[in-house]
Design goal:
Chain lengths: 248, 299, 318
């Protein structure tokens, strides 16, 4: 049985002045997979995430999600359709506590945030606690986000995206900033949680060990194009990929 | 509206615009370089006018022609001394702090200057039209007007515009100012004293406002509210042009000056409304002003 | 902001008690305290917007709107009632706030400030010049209204107005705090810290800001109606840019981070003005200007910040 296509990008082209960030990107993301995006810096990986979430408008091409065109939509519309994003540099509300950050996400998902009942009294507190525990930052729930070190902030950023109960989760270097000894642990938990909640994921990653272990497909980005796409074994064995992307 | 009234309105507009331009361009310059909205700017205008009056009364008995240098002297004293002291002791400590705080400091300066003005010069209107009377009247397309207002004032405005442009684009000092405006850290790294640049720029801006006031003295009676009105009017002109836009301020001052002059003859109740209505309409469509650069799209 | 420090709650309680009791012993304070409370309500609106990182330099327009709503009713219909005036002030400024808000919430920082200023000056110029409707610069007198059908002598009226103002001020204070603790309040603060992230959570920052803006306009209108009743007049000056500046001044003076700052700031502002006007009649503006400069240079957290710094210093010493 053919897996369902969640996200479909066709012919995406973007240039900023003289820089070509996307030169005809065609990509289908299938439901249930964990797709890794690898490639050198400046290849256009983050640009792809920006286009897929409506933050950037391509000069040509289109993106659709579950059959619906999202090319010209705003990030908040795309989010409501079911795509959540975790950022390369964690994007949190630094002056508020970790739990408050999560509850804002929960309230936002709700659709009609109250101007009267206290945030801390929302019924989603227990669920948010569970999510924070899941990524391993539960004990920081009461701390202001700005007090957390980078690695923990990354995890909160991911938890924030998960709080939105997305169909598709886009993560930009989820394990950067995390100690290498903990990377596998976190990815284990994450991929199991994603499988359980039936969340498809696309993640930009530089650590090939992580890619090898957790991705079931890998797309190689180079100079605005997808150079190769396949299973980790196929892709990581390709000599051209090894030379240009991984640098071996 | 017949042609005589129309010509009259144009002349009114031009002479008014010349004064408003001098004040607005100073405000724009200060914002462009120091990134501060100088709420006290209209107070420099008022002080320039009042001090010019004081000087005029002092020298007029000697020779009425001395009132001209008196005007200039008043502008320089206010701009350099007042402006310099304010920048050095009140603004410098708050650079880098929250914009609101910087603005509120200038608001506090405005409150102080407004009060001092009334304490020093009182609340009775002051007239000192000597300089205006010295120059002959002139006939423009059959309409008689003072040459002070339709020749001298616009000339000063145009000379100021050309002078500023030349100074900023073609002089070393101007280049230094532009360098600090563009990138303060880089400029400091190559040895430019950014603090002195800010001081000098503020003095220039304040002097321009004070010059506007001094030159306005012969054309109007000085009353306590003149600074307060000028602050928000010059801000409207500067913001509509785009804060930091020097040449744009000239165009906008002319536009608003003419619009206001015509409205006075057609529907006087809307005279005060015009600048602010224009400001609303322009900012809604172009928040960076008519001549401001549009923002690059964020990645 | 986080958890509300207990001393502030205590300070607020003491303040409201003092506001209720002191004028009973010193009658000349009744009007002064009422004015402080009324202005504090407007400043609560400024503080709301400050949470989103935005400063409105035109809030006097809602203040004037509320005042003139009451004044127009008195002039053209007659037979005013305090509650009716408050309702008129609230409704008119809320509607006005919604209309202006739809435009201004698309902008941020200085553009937000400038656009608000521009709108307020448009309103001011209409109030000042449409003589036949507004009586121009002289303003419109507001005759002493009734309350629920009862008329009062001037001596009693000042207390009636005081306690009505106090009641509304307390409700407004609690309401704003409630709001800031709610999801919408947190989202308002999120606009200041990371607007992009808020959008990426699926929420329209504009809509959140609009709700906050309309709430602040509502507060401005109520404060305006109260002041019109207290001072028995509505003048175009209520909508002039210096009045907007005064409200921002008070917010920063008190400390823009907590709702109680509105009351602390207004109390200090009006107290200084009252006493300076009494003893140094011609220099109160100068004194206030100096006070503001001192606060900004040496106590940027406002009066509330001073207390918290004192507390932290004591804790550090221990």
């Amino acid at each position: 049985m053919m897996a369902k296509v969640l996200l479909s990008a066709k012919g995406i082209e973007i240039r900023f002045g003289g820089v070509i960030a996307a030169d005809g990107i065609d990509l289908d993301v299938y439901e249930g997979e964990n797709l890794a995006i690898i490639g050198p810096n400046g290849a256009g990986k983050t640009t792809f995430l920006n286009v897929s979430t409506g933050y950037l408008r391509p000069q040509a091409g289109s993106v659709s999600f579950l059959g619906r065109d999202i090319t010209a939509q705003l990030p908040r519309t795309v989010t409501r359709l079911g795509i959540a994003r975790a950022f390369q540099i964690p994007q949190l509300f630094l002056d508020q506590t970790v739990m408050e950050n999560m509850l804002i996400a929960a309230a936002s998902l709700n659709g009609h945030p109250s101007g009267f009942r206290a945030l801390s009294g929302l019924p989603q507190v227990s669920e948010m606690t569970r999510l924070l525990d899941l990524v391993g930052v539960g004990q920081f729930a009461g701390r202001k986000a700005r007090e957390l070190p980078e690695g923990q902030r990354k995890l909160v950023d991911i938890a924030l995206a998960l709080a939105l109960k997305p169909r598709l989760l886009l993560m930009d270097e989820p394990t950067s900033g995390v100690a290498s000894s903990e990377k596998f642990g976190i990815m284990d938990i994450l991929t199991r949680a994603l499988a359980r909640e039936k969340v498809t994921s696309v993640f930009v990653e530089h650590d090939m060990d992580v890619v090898e272990r957790y991705a079931n497909r890998v797309a190689v980005w180079s100079m605005g194009k997808i150079q190769k796409i396949g299973t980790p074994v196929q892709v990581l064995a390709d000599p051209k990929v090894r030379e240009h992307v991984i640098g071996i | 509206m017949n042609s005589t009234l129309a010509i009259l309105a144009v002349l009114d507009g031009i002479s008014y615009a010349a004064l408003v331009f001098l004040v607005s361009v100073g405000l724009s310059l200060i914002f462009g370089v120091l990134r501060i909205v100088n709420v006290a700017h209209g107070s420099f205008y008022a002080f320039g006018a009042y001090l010019a009056a004081t000087f005029s009364f002092a020298v007029a008995p000697l020779s009425p022609w001395l009132t001209y240098p008196a005007l200039l002297a008043a502008a320089i004293v206010i701009g350099v001394v007042c402006g310099g002291l304010i920048e050095r002791f009140l603004l410098r400590p708050v650079y880098g702090r929250d914009d609101v705080l910087q603005l509120l400091i200038t608001f506090a300066v405005f409150m102080i200057m407004d009060n001092l003005q009334r304490l020093i010069w009182g609340v009775q209107p002051i007239f000192a039209a000597e300089p205006l009377k010295l120059l002959p009247n002139i006939s423009v397309f059959g309409v008689t007007y003072t040459s002070y207002q339709v020749v001298l004032l616009p000339c000063v405005a145009v000379l100021t515009l050309i002078g500023l442009r030349y100074f900023l684009r073609h002089s070393l000092a101007g280049a230094v100012i532009l360098a600090v405006t563009e990138d303060r850290e880089a400029a400091t790294a190559i040895g430019i004293d950014a603090r002195r640049v800010y001081l000098v720029t503020f003095m220039i801006g304040a002097s321009l406002a004070a010059l506007g006031g001094a030159l306005a003295l012969p054309t109007t009676s000085l009353v306590p509210g003149m600074g307060t009105d000028m602050i928000v009017l010059s801000f409207a002109v500067a913001a509509t042009a785009g804060l930091g836009q020097i040449e744009g301020a000239a165009v906008t001052a002319l536009m608003i000056g003419l619009a206001r002059a015509f409205i006075i003859y057609i529907q006087p109740e809307f005279e005060v409304l015009v600048p602010y209505l224009i400001m609303v309409l322009v900012l809604l469509v172009r928040p960076y002003g008519l001549f401001g650069a549009t923002q690059l799209r964020k990645i | 902001m986080g958890r509300r420090p207990k001393p502030i709650t205590l300070a607020a309680v003491l303040f409201f008690l003092a506001a209720a009791i002191a004028p009973l012993f010193i009658p000349s304070w009744a009007t002064l305290v009422a004015l402080i409370l009324a202005k504090s309500i407007v400043v609560l609106g400024i503080i709301l917007l400050l949470q989103a990182g935005q400063v409105s330099f035109g809030h006097a327009m809602f203040f004037a709107c509320g005042a003139y709503a009451a004044a127009f009713w008195g002039k053209y219909v007659g037979g005013g009632d305090i509650l009716l005036y408050l309702l008129l002030g609230a409704v008119s400024s809320t509607v006005f706030g919604l209309i202006v808000g739809l435009f201004v919430v698309r902008y941020r920082e200085i553009f937000f400030g400038m656009l608000n200023l521009a709108f307020s000056m448009v309103l001011w110029s209409l109030l000042e010049k449409m003589f036949s409707y507004t009586n121009g610069a002289d303003g419109i007198r507001v005759a002493r209204p009734h309350l629920l059908g009862m008329a009062f002598t001037p001596e009693t009226f000042q207390y009636v107005v005081l306690y009505v103002s106090l009641l509304i001020a307390i409700v407004a204070f609690l309401g704003v705090q409630r709001y800031l603790d709610s999801p919408l309040g947190h989202m308002l603060r999120a606009i200041k810290s990371n607007e992009t992230r808020l959008e990426y959570l699926g929420t329209s920052a504009r809509r959140v800001l609009l709700v906050g803006y309309v709430f602040s306009a509502f507060l401005g209108g109520i404060g305006g109606a109260l002041v019109a009743i207290i001072q028995q007049i509505a003048t175009p000056e209520f909508g002039f840019w210096t009045k907007s500046g005064e409200f921002v001044f008070i917010a920063i003076l008190g400390g823009g981070a907590h709702a109680f700052g509105a009351f602390a700031g207004a109390a200090m502002f009006e107290a200084v003005r009252f006493y300076a006007a009494a003893h140094l009649a011609n220099a109160w503006q100068l004194i206030l200007g100096v006070v503001l400069i001192v606060i900004i240079l040496y106590a940027p957290g406002g009066l509330i910040g001073l207390r918290q710094r004192g507390k932290r210093a004591k804790q550090g010493a221990q």
